[in-house]
Amino acid sequence: MRFPVLVAVSLAVIGGTAGRQSYSGYKLYSVEQNSQQQVDFLRELQQSAQDLDFWKLDRLVGSEARVLVPPAQLDYFRQLLKAQKLRHRELIHDFERVQDDHLYGTKRVTPSQGLPLNKYLRYNEMIDYINTLAKKYSSFVTVAEIGKSYEGRPIPAVTIQSPSLYKSHPNSSKPVVFVDAGIHAREWAAPAMAMYLISELVENAAQHQDLLAGLTWTIVPIANPDGYEYSHERERLWRKTRRPAGRNCVGVDGNRNYDFHWAEVGASNQPCSDTYHGEQSFSEPETRAIRDELLRLKGRCKFYLSLHTYGQYLLYPWGWTSELPEDWEKVDAVAQAGARAIEEATGSTYTVGSSTNVLYAAAGGSDDYAYAVADVPISMTMELPGGGSQGFNPPPTRIEEIVKETFVGVRAMALEVARNYS
Q1: 39 and 186 belong to one structural domain
Q2: 165 and 250 together in one domain
Q3: In this structure, what CATH number is given to the domain that contains residue 56?
Q4: Cystine design at 21: which of 81, 235, 246, 296 (Cβ 3.0–4.6 Å)?
């Protein structure tokens, strides 16, 4: 059963200590991968050295990895790079210093003034905004709760249909585009993009009739609200959910928790790891909420898109193997349409391909599950642009640029889906 999301919630963070996690002395490095041997070495290092936080790492020779290194590991890390003859440069001398205070500001947003593009909204602000839209545009916008997080926060889904079609055919079975964002808590730009997508489709509906006439949109702007709030209040680079795991650990990587080749590859069985897959598939209420909504839409949902950051990738199944699905060309064609549109509009280049072949094997992902189990024919993950050298921490001044560029790609892909599945 679906229930309206009527009120925002105010909850104390469970676990952790007072004050924010310090990143004093943490350094961000860019490391060149100039041979297959170096690509393989960095991948092995990522899997074995849990204290090293790989912000960006793919399998493409000639690309650059981004690694955040804590002070205690600096000498060890530099020695490894020297031994492997890996060229590198320091991008951030002290990560603590680049966390500007305005990222954590408490000034609230007034929903009636529209969606701001110069700050990262907190969970309650998102809820207030989408509820305001649902009241103001009740003829074609609904907000529903599809589940609750571990700490009890409602997980909202916003459904948007064409205003004209909704009035005459409220139960229209148009193809559904399902978008979620923010399963990885620290990837703040992803929920910002989901909120921008909602804003454009609703407040600028007249300009996007081509996106609304043939499609129904269901958007979950914040899939991991507990982790998101925790990343604002306590630990900026927190990635997982917030349910206790193991004896002294917290959280599960939601994008390793889906029940399709779960726990086979690319995920950790160590509860403290950032890629911990959970003690069982769908152990998290957050992933169960997305699962249930995908299964509810089975047969109708034609395009599943999970928004993440960062790296400028359009990735599709499989994530558990380098083999490709039988009809991968159809998914690739949609992804290529998005990449082309972005390059034509902004000059930015996106890498397109299967998750395993572009990045690395990682089983238990939502896009594999949507494709294989929920029968969504076009399923993919979109890695948004980062914040330059700041990666996961793009300053608020870059939000508008990031979301507008991403919208160009999402629009092009959705139109491609509408042409082929309406």
Answers
A1: no
A2: yes
A3: 3.30.70.340
A4: 235
Provide the residue range defining the domain that includes 53. Answer: 27-93
Task: Output the DSSP codes for 240-256.
Answer: S--SEETTTEE---GGG
Neighbour-count burial of 5, counting CB atoms closer than 10 A to its CB (0-12 exposed, 13-18 middle, 19+ buried)? buried
Per-run averaged pLDDT (10 residues), the chain, 422 residues = 42 47 93 94 89 91 94 95 94 84 54 84 97 96 98 98 60 85 97 98 95 96 98 95 94 98 94 95 98 97 97 96 96 98 97 95 97 98 81 86 97 96 82
pTM of the complete model: 0.91
Q: What is the per-residue pLDDT for 388?
A: 61
Residue 234 CB contacts under 8 Å (≥ 6 apart), including other chains: 13, 16, 19, 20, 21
Q: What is the spatial distance between Cα 91 and Cα 204, in angstroms, rounded to a whole number?
A: 39
Residue of 158, 142, 228, 155 whose CA lies nearest to 198: 158
Q: How far apart are CA 377 and CA 356, in angstroms?
A: 19
- Considering only CA atoms, which of 301, 293, 286, 218 is closest in space to residue 256? 286
Catalytically active residues are 383
Q: Is 400 exposed, middle or buried (0-12, 13-18, 19+ CB in 10 A)?
A: middle
